[in-house]
């Protein structure tokens, strides 16, 4: 094997024999029978066998080799625009040959352009010919040979003998038409079949992957994923965390009679919704156990996750442990800090404790003081960005980590974060360090199928109710051509005391462009309505300036806030009731929903305008319109997440830049939910009763990646 070929194979991930046998055909060609030339339909790809009548180079309209061949039924031409003298020789007049290609043209001018040539009279293959995805540097025949060889070499131990599934019931595989197909395939049978199916197989069942062989393969893949998630969960449960039981009374030496969590309920100024009370109970029950909690708190935008997080933090602090709250952006962390500080600082102060703030751009001295307070335990609650808290903070006794907007993090990131926290704890306190509990919050509800796959190692709490008194946000689609009209209406509303967000287009590749865009819009709006005080917020501004603008908007001094997507998550200004999103067609649905969730938080009727650019055609593409229409049709975050997943697929939906390996290659969560359910029932049984097969299975599917997840 040449280094170039090695490289091409590596690029396709074809290293081990198992990789090769799992590299499945894109489609198939039928070379199992010879079709008489006269019977080949226009556009049909066929194998013909015929004798060369003439072979000549034509120069008009361009140089090409034109070969006329004839069989008993008729004749046609074979055309080659690129050819070697050797090919010309091989097609000398009188030679019999086979040609495989697409028949084109009517009765008089039938031809095949660049057919593949085969020797005549050789035995015909008995199976369909696979056509594989190949990259540069590989040819079909070469890869075919490699895969055939790998199929011969490999021993595929069956990791799913019937013994494994009798207790969960038979596998729910689809049965295509025709008798004799209803049986359970071994993996080896399924793979051999898919590489070389017999010519009579209904091709449709291979294309739509409903054939039992395909289903068998998908079950394998889904099972590997379920097994690994269960294993991760088991490994985690073998670790110890501090048991943080809910304290009913304050500590004797503390000022308040009541524990923090009860005091917090007195100062927030509203009653918890039933859903909030339920999720707090779920979280508290987890934290009371000495097994690390790993829970996702999901709730639509505005459902009130912050106060739930604060209550969890209080339960943790009541038990004498510190709590860290991390957010993905500085502005969001800042908002959390403001809110928690207002609620908790007085209560903590009475106990001689405090809330600490840690961010990237902070004065050295201030930061050093914060770090010292965290290390001494004086700072009981630490709020900051992920990056800062993960990298540089030593806690005296960390009991709970709260992560906001976790859907941005893949499984790997979550694991590595947890491991780092644990290592740090181990360094600080000796060998048998306790691991903190983890609570992750997300406003993007995870659709059920995704929750069962990529997030199967998480427990989930859902706030499925909004606080009372909210008015639903009315959403409208408006073409950018009506921009002036929109600005005039906006001005009228703001002059009446309402506040508005104006979100600028997202330009993925370039922060600089993002900025110039936001600045231009800001200037445009200011020029159009000079009497309305306005603020501009973008990611490149110094933190102090950002804070000043946010404060101005929160206090009502600014009527309009022009912003890049920095306000995408978490910003909470109840008086803001208007939202304009420019170039809405460039955003994902979940993102739009998050943005829209910034309004409708107070009692005023709120509106969200999705401005879309129609481009040169003057029209928005149908899919873009469908997407945006979903926003108009529903305010339900679950429904939107479901559609978003449908449109974008799991990788993009989760916002993870996938290596490819961690996403499903064969199964499709849209069509294969029943297979997923089945493997989900199967996985724990296998781990408990056939750990040997389970391990083999994971090794086969996840390889080195599995070792990493275990570590
Ligand atoms: P999100 O879930 O999007 O993070 P927040 O926690 O920011 O939502 O809450 C949105 C707003 O609703 C905040 O102003 C918060 O104080 C308020 N809120 C939360 N829970 C309740 C409740 N039970 N009753 C009334 N208002 C509430
Ligand atoms: Mg929030």
Describe this protein's structure:
The structure is a single chain. This protein is α/β, with parallel strands linked by helices. Among the domains are: 33-124, Nucleic acid-binding proteins (OB fold (Dihydrolipoamide Acetyltransferase, E2P)), CATH 2.40.50; 258-463, Rossmann fold, CATH 3.40.50; 473-634, Rossmann fold (3-Layer(aba) Sandwich). It is built from 24 helices and 21 strands. The strands form four sheets. Strands 11-12-10-13-14-9-15 form a seven-stranded parallel β-sheet, sandwiched between helices. Strands 6-4-3-2-5-7 form a six-stranded mixed β-sheet, with no helix packed on it. α9 (260-267) crosses α12 (330-349). It is globular. Residues 656-662 have low confidence and may be disordered. The structure holds adenosine-5'-diphosphate and magnesium ion. Residues 305-306, 570 line the site of magnesium ion.
Q: Main traits of this protein?
A:
42% helix; OB fold (Dihydrolipoamide Acetyltransferase, E2P); single chain; alpha/beta; 7-stranded parallel sheet; 711 residues; binds adenosine-5'-diphosphate; globular; Rossmann fold; 6-stranded mixed sheet; 24 helices; Helicase_ATP-bd; binds magnesium ion
